Amino acid sequence: MACVELEGRILLVDVGLSFPHADMPGIDLVLPDFEYVRQNADRVEAAVLTHGHEDHIGALPYLLRELEGLPVYGTAFTLALLQGKLEEHEVSDRCELRLATPGEGASVGPFSMRFLRVTHSIPDGMAVAIDSPFGTILHTGDFKIDQTPLDGRPTDLHGLAEEASAPKGVHLLLSDSTNAEEAGYTSSERSVGPVLHRIIENAPQIVVVACFSSHIHRIQQVVAAARANERVVAFLGRSMHNSVGAARRLGLLNVPDADVVPIEEVERLDPGRVVVICTGSQGEPYSALSLMAAREHKWVKLKEGDAVVLSSSLIPGNEPAIHRVVDALYRSGADVYHMPSDAVHASGHAAQEELRLMLSLVRPRWFVPIHGERRHLQHHARLAVEVGIPSDHVMICEDGDVVEVGERCRVAGRVPAGMTFVDGLGIGDVGGEVLRDRRKLAGDGVVVVVVTVDSHSGEVVAGPDVVNRGFVYDETSGDILEEARKRVMLSLEDSAKARVTDPSALQQNVRRVLGKYFYEVTQRKPVILPVIMEV
User: Fold this and answer.
1) Per-residue DSSP letters for 347-415?
2) pLDDT per residue over 468-527, tens digit each?
3) Is 280 left (phi over 0), alpha (psi -120 to 50) or beta?
4) pLDDT surpasses 80 at 15
5) How high is the pLDDT of residue 420?
6) C-alpha torsion sign, points 277, 281, 286, 292
7) Nearest-angstrom CA–CA distance, 171 and 192
8) What single DSSP character describes residue 187?
9) Where in 142-256 does DSSP place strands (E)?
10) Is residue 141 within 8 Å of 176, Cβ to Cβ?
11) Is 116 helix (H, G, I), strand (E, B) or coil?
12) Distance of alpha carbon 175 from its chain centroid, rounded?
């Protein structure tokens, strides 16, 4: 999510979300920190979305709870995917969707924009060129330079060159860095089709292909391979149905109705004549593929002779989950095809030679690499210097940095930035302290001590009862818990003799005694929760 400011007005470029890492237990989604936008809500003119992936549009429904009447520009497929999200969140009446057509432009407030088609792993991706008094600010969005795209709509290199040749040229380029560590060129999407065709042709029984639901070109190639081998197709997963439905309505996906069957009918058909296209290629716990791997899926029971294709890359951080699913799939007896051993995926992001081509074609005076981890930004910055951009005209920025665009560009300060966690229905009510507590609970467990004391004398009336979760196994470590109970009893007796009756003081004594004892015998530090009841 980026903010471009001109004449006191703000244009939002993408409003995406990310997904939790392993060190964020219980978190469902990660949103940008909207604090700066919230503080300047009256200055927000519009939002423009470069494409329809979750990390570029997923947070907009949450932002619209705080903004109303926001014009949102996007291509047809991007807006179709967004519409479903807005209706699900019941905020579709809080914005105005405006169609952005690549090759054309739009003006809103002081902002004059032009939209340029780029190829990516989703249809209808675009770059956005925004006029400024010093020249064009060009935001590439996510892109690759695929010369033979499946839909015949390549990246608009001519339009990009025209931006560079305009009277003021491209003053500042913001460019995708995701694959900046990868040498050479990214493979064309067409390279995946023959591999999928060969797998489906040779499979004796059912074929399951897992991919991102928004990767319509990949789905089209799976459908084409299925039809060529006289197989029917079943779509599985809510997001898959939503994306496929939107793509078919817009003419981006060609799937005759006669070749599509409901997933409920698959078990009654000849398995050698079925291809299932589903979600779950990233090992999501309750996705269709994970349920199949665990042999818990209602309609698809994998067995020896079946084939499973994971047609996607590994998103950093998801590797352990994906590997668990792959191992479980192998145990089912199915043949499993996945990257990097099988060429069943082509990235949607530009590799180093394509990034060099973009930099050389656009010839920006200033450059800020975006999208990716710090190492990706650093590699992209190095490429920019190699193609002739002066090193002092390349800026590597962090979230929240304010880049002042003048004759010279510079980092002029910072605004509030960071992450907002979504946990169930709660948005932002889980912060760093809560996550630290959750990690501690996950790491060492919790011990609850319940005791009833006389409010006047402090003497123990009932208990203490010691209950643990995630610390030790009761049946094999009963001696530890029994000794803990005795030590709590002695501590409370000493407190009673000293006339200590304050519950908070008693709780502190219990924590101190048990904390020391547990560390001595286990080298662990569980969370200790004393519950002191007075009578």
Assistant:
1) -SS--HHHHHHHHHHH--SEEEEESS-HHHHHHHHHHHHHTT--GGGB----TTEEEEESSSEEEEEE-
2) 877 777 665 667 888 888 888 888 777 777 776 777 777 788 888 888 888 888 777 788
3) left
4) yes
5) 81
6) positive
7) 37
8) P
9) 170-176, 207-210, 232-236
10) yes
11) strand
12) 19
d(CA 277, CA 220): 11
Degrees (nearest 5) of the Cα angle 506, 512, 518? 130
Residue 317 has a pLDDT of 64
pTM: 0.82
What is the CATH code for 445-534? 3.10.20.580
The number of residues in the chain equals: 535
Q: Which residues contact 302 (CB under 8 A, 6 or more apart)?
A: 206, 208, 292, 293, 295, 308, 329, 332, 333, 334
Question: In this predicted model, what pLDDT tens digit does every residue of 188-208 receive, in sequence order?
Answer: 999 999 999 999 999 999 999
Q: Are 285 and 320 in contact (CB under 8 A)?
A: no
SS3 assignment, position 468? strand
Q: Is 324 helix (H, G, I), strand (E, B) or coil?
A: helix
Q: Which residue in 51, 215, 297, 349 is the catalytic one?
A: 349
CATH 3.60.15.10 given to domain 2-185+347-427: yes
Q: Which of 176, 306, 335, 423 is catalytic?
A: 176
Using one digit for the tens of pLDDT, what is the confidence trace for 66-121? 898 999 999 999 999 999 899 988 999 999 999 999 999 999 999 999 999 999 99
Active site residue 139: no
Contact 36, 113 (CB under 8 A): no
One CATH from 3.90.950.10, 3.40.50.10710, 3.30.470.10, 3.40.50.300 for 189-338: 3.40.50.10710
Residue range(s) of every CATH 3.60.15.10 domain in the chain? 2-185+347-427
Q: What was the pLDDT predicted at 510?
A: 82
Which has the minimum average pLDDT: 224-228, 267-271, 504-508?
504-508
Quick one: what percent of the chain has pLDDT higher than 90? 59
Mean pLDDT over the full length of the chain:
88
User: Residue 91 CB: number of other CB atoms within 10 A?
Assistant: 19
Q: In 468-502, which ranges are continuous DSSP H helix?
A: 478-497
CATH code 3.40.50.10710 region(s) in the chain: 189-338
Task: Name every residue whose Cβ is closer than 8 Å to that of residue 142 and which is 6 or more positions away in sequence.
Answer: 50, 51, 53, 56, 118, 120, 121, 125, 176, 178, 348, 349, 371
- Helices vs strands, H then E, count in the chain: 15, 24
Active site residue 28: no
